[in-house]
Amino acid sequence: MSPLFRRKAAGPRERLVTLIRKPGCHLCDDAELVIDKVCGELGVSWEQKDITEDRQLHDRYWEQIPVVLIDGEQHTFWRVNEERLRRALTE
Which of 44, 50, 86, 89 has its CA 20 to 30 A from that of 11? Predict the structure, then answer.
């Protein structure tokens, strides 16, 4: 395909990482550390959402938390791999 028709990937600063978590979850705390580190290094925005405050998130993800979304699409759950997250945000 011609480069003129290829969609340009968003740069790291244009991405949004969402951590879906719940209070008292040690895996969520671990995920937060990795996300904070990687997003901080790359200048990527990130947010947290609590499944105890959102019924739809609870119903969808309660068995998988922590869940990491990139631009609204599920990237991973349970454990966050620093290098995999970094690659996903820079490719």
Answer: 50
In tens digits, the chain (91 residues) has pLDDT values of: 444 443 445 555 589 999 999 999 999 999 999 999 999 999 999 999 999 999 999 999 999 999 999 999 999 999 999 999 999 999 8
Omega before 12 cis (within 30°)? no
53/83 Cα distance (integer angstroms): 30
Q: Are 61 and 76 in contact (CB under 8 A)?
A: no
Cβ neighbours for 43, distance < 8 A, ≥ 6 positions apart: 12, 13
Query: Token pair of 24, please?
Result: 């008292």
Report the greatest alpha carbon distance in the chain. 50
**Token pair for 42:** 């790359």
Positive or negative torsion for Cα 7, 12, 18, 24: positive
